[in-house]
Amino acid sequence: MTKPLKLSTLTFACAMSGALVLGGCGKKNKAPKAAQLEEVQKRTVDEAEATKALKAMALDSSGDGVLSWAARDGKAGNYVYRDVTIKDDTDELVKVGEMELVGVHMEGESPAFDKIVFKDVNATDIEKGDKTEMHFGKIAIVKPSPALAKAFAEAFNGDDDAFENIEGEVGFKAMSLADMSISDKDVNMNVKALNMGEADDKTGVFSLKDLSVDGNKDEKVKIRLESIDVTGANLKKYKGIIKAAMKDGDSDKFAAEYFKSTMNVYDPDFRHASLKGLDADIEGLKITLDSYVADATKKGDKMVMEAKMTPLRVVPPAETTDRGMKEFKKALDTMGYDSLEFTAGGTSILDEKADSMVAKDTFIAMKDGFRFSYDLDMTGYKAFMEQAAAMQAEQAKNGGKANPMAAMGMMSALTINKMHVAFRDDSIVDRVFKLAAAEKGGSPEALKSQAKAMLGFLSMAAKDEAQQKLAQDIGKAVSELIDNGGSLVIDVNPQQPVNLMQLGMGAASGKVDVNALGITVSHEPAE
């Protein structure tokens, strides 16, 4: 990639890592607006110090580095450059209508600044005949860390790898993009505004407004996203991610940092996050989401997490040449669906002192289909997540190769105290048998009879009287569900907390103590 575009690429690296890092704000805390995040009081810097910093950044005389300009105004550390051109060795690739520097000064022997703003940025990159064009109405970075400010200086001096070789902490108080557009032969992307930064309480905020993606020529893609708003992010928890993300191609380190950051589940990622107004059309497949909202509230050792997803709708294309999509649409037509609509939600209470998690009425539901829900009380959650994160990090380093022993160790950390699972039929059972009949031949009623007959074989695998009764209860409950709808309910109320790995090994060997586990299966009639 060319040198000038690396200056623009910096903003994308920050933006993408920020999107991974930043979570949301509490219900009582509104997200600061972009102007509040960017606010910096201009300082008066000694002229000699300011000039020294400008020279170190190749910004004292036009053309000293990769930047040249038609005019410069300002003094005492605060400057405005107009009609700026950023060059590489062969061509002019980036033009900036105006660049503002606020608080230019020295930090020891390195130049620094309080704020840099690029306005009316236009960039063109032509590689192997393919042209990429970028436009930004504005890019602003406020209070960059010394390491990041130094990288800017090195880039302005012509260092092509300045942002890939940063030594030290990468960070900033705020960053914003406005009126961004990127286009190439495949796609056009536009963003009205993207803001991220640090609020007064030292937590992070992130906001994205009006994202649009449109495919060109053969790329039949159209995506719209109204907003993502997240504040109250736990910046300390994800300290290593931004730096890892800035390292060009260092995906293993990025993955390791990400999984390491997720280990302490009792340290919340955010206080509030929301995504609204997703509307996507991909090869005729339409996906819309009204909203997804999540909140996390921590008091002492306890944290309450709540999440709610309002309708996610999936509509198959009316006409398509894609084989898989044709089969998908045919299946929906057979079941009597012209679209699928999902909702989801739930509440989890995490107790750090007890190392426990209690999930209440966590569910996913499909309109005119089903509702699957569960309540769960378990301990060992932190150890489970730590081992899961370590396993995923190891897997990332090993090219995606899984370690079965690590997976077993992960399961051994988790203990189930109580569990309640319910599957409510809202017509999905009849529809699935109708689909099966269409694909295999026969009638739905005949297939239902076959399925109920097969349930009778469960008793043959029973090893004792308790297992025999459980098998009979399962057969009766599932048969009732097939015939009359309603809900299939599974409860686990063990006499003593049960280790998940031991439960799995017992199930595999057939040595399951049904009475000790308190397992019951029942059917509840439709309301």
From TrEMBL:
Domain of life where this protein originates: Bacteria
Name of protein: Lipoprotein
Native source species: Hellea balneolensis
